[in-house]
Structures are given as C-alpha cells and as structure tokens.
Amino acid sequence: MEVNDRELWMLKRKRKKITHQMLAEVLDCTQAHISLYENGKTNMSPEKERMYQNYISKY
C-alpha cells in the first residue's frame, strides 16, 4: 500500500498531536474542511496548503 502526500502530512500532524482545531484557527477555515482535505474529499488553495504544511513542519 502506498501512502500519498496528504496521508503523510496527516500522519505527521497526528504524531505531533496537532488538532484540526489548531490548524483551522491558523488557516482561517473549519475543522471539517481540514478533515475533508486530509481524506481527499476536497482541496485547499495552494496558499492554504503551504500554510498547512509549514505549520506542521515548524510545530
């Protein structure tokens, strides 16, 4: 089974114990949007996607 980029970022987020609520506040979106994004059911703008990845990387 191959892990895609979104799954990899979700795993990193979970390892660091970053919640959807924390990300939603930083990205100015809903927790549901974060969940849908991580599950591949919606997309984020490239800018928000960079912010998502940067927050997880730097946490």
TrEMBL record:
Residues 13-48 form the HTH cro/C1-type domain. It comes from Gracilibacillus caseinilyticus. It comes from the Bacteria. InterPro entries: Cro/C1-type_HTH (IPR001387), Lambda_DNA-bd_dom_sf (IPR010982). Pfam families: HTH_3 (PF01381). This is Helix-turn-helix transcriptional regulator.
